[in-house]
Design goal:
Layout: E1 3-10, H1 13-26, E2 31-34, H2 38-50, E3 60-61, E4 72-75, E5 86-89, E6 103-109, H3 112-127, E7 133-136
Parallel strand pairs: 1-6, 1-7, 2-4, 2-5, 3-4, 5-6
Helix pairs in contact: 1-2
């Protein structure tokens, strides 16, 4: 069964995602990042190139020739996935096919437009027998 983790309380969702992905990359984790908004995907891509002063977080955009070998892949679609290890959801809707992943991470900002739909997803998961965990992610 998919492990579900809600990381909540981020003042800047994309900055928090970049920090979390930096940690995931350091731990050699494979993560598919679902970002349905093209401008947000572009922003996250830039953050991953510039966040670490001495380097970057290794990643690729879906569709890139490097996506198949990249540990972190940013995508706006979940129909053709390179792996099924971890899914970081930066969308505000239930990600389709989330149950095929070993782990689903829902990163939630303090903005009501993000927080309120996330509550509904938390309820959805719990009603279907999942045991979502919740942790404060901070600023």
């Amino acid at each position: 069964m998919t492990r579900i983790l809600f990381l909540h309380g981020a003042s800047d969702r994309l900055a928090a995602a970049a920090r979390w992905l930096n940690e995931a990359a350091a731990a050699k984790r494979k993560v598919l990042v679902y970002v349905p908004q093209a401008d947000a995907a572009t922003q996250l891509d830039r953050l991953l190139w510039t966040q670490v002063a001495t380097g970057f977080v290794p990643h690729a955009l879906a569709g890139s020739p490097l996506a198949a070998e990249s540990p972190i892949v940013i995508t706006d679609r979940l129909d053709a996935i390179p792996h099924d290890k971890a899914l970081l959801n930066l969308g505000d809707e239930l990600p389709s096919g989330f149950s095929r992943f070993e782990e689903l991470i829902e990163l939630i900002s303090s903005d009501d437009a993000v927080r309120l739909p996330a509550r509904e997803r938390f309820k959805f998961y719990r009603e279907r027998g999942y045991a979502p965990e919740s942790r404060e992610v901070g600023t």
